[in-house]
Automatic annotation (TrEMBL):
Pfam families in alphabetical order: HIT
Motif Histidine triad motif location, chain numbering: 99-103
Organism: Rugosimonospora acidiphila
UniProt protein name: Histidine triad nucleotide-binding protein
Record domain HIT: where: 6-115
PROSITE patterns according to UniProt: HIT_2
Amino acid sequence: MVDNCLFCRIVAGEIPATVVHETPGTLAFRDIAPKAPVHVLVITKEHHVDVAAVAAADPALAGEVLGAAAEVARGEGIEERGYRVMFNSGPDSGQEVAHVHAHVLGGKPLGPMLCA
Ligand code: 5GP
Ligand code: ZN
């Protein structure tokens, strides 16, 4: 656990979250400010700053995040119509929380991938 990391604090149970899925290495919970009818974040329980960091440190865990994202989509009933899995990484992406998280978005047509 990293001090003052919001998502480490959610893993530790210090900050409440609506958990929808869990695996040995990951936790998935609803985004507090959803950008789509389904907006779930899949995080590693261990602290890694972004997707590149977890892929380098523990490729199996990176795969576990992707598998969990697919399970979340299935559980949320959006597998058939489709959904988007997105990792922000670094300043240009607008990453706000420096603890790896996959955004699982769906529940309506999501439109173009980028606004600009
Ligand atoms: P980022 O911009 O880093 O890719 O995404 C961070 C996400 O975390 C944002 O979509 C934001 O709404 C979400 N978020 C920020 N604080 C909290 C919180 O305390 N709880 C939950 N469940 N989500 C949060
Ligand atoms: Zn963390």
